[in-house]
Amino acid sequence: MSGKRKKTRVNVSLDPELYRRAKALGLNVSGVSERALREYVDRLENGSGQSSVLVGTNGPDGSNDTSDDTADDTDANDDTEAEYADTPTEEVLDDYRQFATGVLDRSENTVDLHTRYIERLLEHVDKPPSQVTQDDITGYLDSEGDVSDATRMNIIGALRVFFRDFLDREVMDVFEMPSKSAKPTDVPSKDDLQTFYEALENPKYKAAFLFAATSGLRSSELCQLKMDDIDEDKQMLVPDKE
Question: Which of 72, 47, 69, 49 is nearest to 58 (CA)?
Fold first, then answer.
């Protein structure tokens, strides 16, 4: 193990165009941000007031100094390799969950699904995330067997977010999403619907069928309806949901 101080992962939102320009110039965004923050903190603690110096644009003497801010691939890779190198899988996934829900604003259901695929990958390769290779990922995808295009898209999408957005690694760049062919919806005819309705014997099911056919409600919304959701004055159905 190296003598480097363990770093704390923080999530910072950046202007996407600024981030793109920085990466195009080869800047180590994490390093630039840390040096800039350190200088601001040092100046404030020393009573110098808010610094107007932007690390990576002007040096402390006012000169144009970017020597420390251009991307040093070795340093950037060292940070990536060190991060989560000895962290238990459970803690890695916990950090990812916070990132996906807090920064990416993904739903709990989506995060749960993606986390399952990520966990299966890490268990399959039995390596820290920073050491996972493209061959490892190919082997994991093969281990999932003959899955549908939709499932494969979900797996690749989950791993892309994990490696590209969370770990800032490019290991998923070579994996393409499978093309998903559109399947036409088979819509029953009006006669079919009437035949089905007439075959129903329970009045409760008849009412539910009419609601489903005419209201546009999802099945889950239909099942959660209450009498209080009916506004008789407006002759409207207003589901009470967040």
Answer: 69
Given a contact cutoff of 8 angstroms between Cβ atoms, the answer to whether 231 and 238 are in contact is yes
DSSP H or E segment with residue 205: helix 203-215
Q: How many CB atoms lie within 10 A of CB 24?
A: 8
- List of residues 6+ apart from 65 with CB closer than 8 A: 58, 59
Q: Residue 7's closest CA among 90, 75, 77, 79? A: 79
Contact present, 129 and 92 (Cβ < 8 Å): yes
* Contact (Cβ atoms closer than 8 angstroms) between residue 32 and residue 56: yes
pLDDT by residue (tens digit) across 18-62? 877 777 776 666 667 777 777 778 777 777 554 444 444 444 444
Q: Which residues of the chain have pLDDT under 70?
A: 1-11, 26-31, 48-85, 178-182, 241-242
Q: Confirm whether pTM is higher than 0.90.
A: no
215-239 in b/e burial notation, b at 16+ Cβ within 10 A? eebeeebeeebeeeeeeeeeeeeee
Q: Is residue 167 within 8 Å of residue 130, measured between CB atoms?
A: yes
Q: Identify any residues that bridge with 231 across adjacent strands, giving them in sequence order.
A: 236
For the chain, report the end-to-end CA distance as a whole number of angstroms: 49
Q: Encoding tokens for residue 216?
A: 């546009």
| Residue 166 · residue 93 · CB < 8 Å | no
Amino acid at 75: D
210: tokens are 């009419």
- Residues 118-144: tens digit of each pLDDT: 999 999 999 888 889 999 999 999 998
Average pLDDT of the chain, as a whole number: 77
